[in-house]
UniProtKB/TrEMBL annotation:
Pfam families for this protein: Usp
Lineage: Bacteria, Pseudomonadati, Pseudomonadota, Betaproteobacteria, Burkholderiales
Segment forming the signal sequence: none
All residue ranges annotated as the UspA domain in the record: 1-145
Protein origin, superkingdom: Bacteria
CDD domains assigned to the protein according to its UniProt record, in alphabetical order: USP-like (cd00293)
Family per similarity comment: Belongs to the universal stress protein A family.
Designated name of the protein: Universal stress protein
Organism: Undibacterium oligocarboniphilum
Length: 151
């Protein structure tokens, strides 16, 4: 059915629960997993006249974000290892997580995106925005939305 599943995470408790469910799902299908963390792009401080000396360079920012991303991807890596699921992790920089999720799924040849959702609807979804909803509207491959009842 599905052979390569993309699982985006932001390191939150909800995302970790969804990734765990996704890895269990991947194990049942004997599918590979690509876990993705999308970090915001570096923003050069153009709104001030003098750049403070403690402002990180783009390289310093990206290095710090990669370290943070690795810590967020570690639970997925551990769960995949324990389940015996083939695993790959990816860190991307983009100010539009939904676009990057769809792009990475295409780039890595994934045939399913398994993504968590807070389950908000109506005004709550409109006010807060929803990466999951944006992925659904942008994507041309199947998207499985995992809703964790505990959250």
């Amino acid at each position: 059915m599905y052979s390569k599943i993309l699982m985006p995470t932001d390191g939150s408790e909800l995302a970790n629960a969804s990734v765990q469910a996704g890895i269990d799902f991947a194990k049942q299908l004997n599918a590979k997993v690509v876990a993705l963390f999308v970090a915001s792009s570096y923003q050069y401080p153009i709104y001030i006249d003098i750049i403070p000396p403690n402002t990180p360079t783009e390289e310093e920012y990206q290095s710090a974000m990669r370290t943070l991303a690795e810590s967020y991807l570690q639970p997925a890596r551990d769960a995949a290892k324990q389940a015996g699921v083939e695993f790959e992790s990816v860190i991307q920089f983009n100010d539009s997580p939904a676009k990057e999720i769809v792009h990475t799924a295409q780039q890595y040849g994934c045939d399913l995106i398994f993504i968590g959702s807070h389950g908000r609807s109506g005004v709550g979804q409109l006010l807060l925005g929803s990466t999951t909803t944006k992925v659904l509207s942008l994507c041309n491959i199947p998207v499985l939305v995992h809703r964790n009842k505990a959250h």
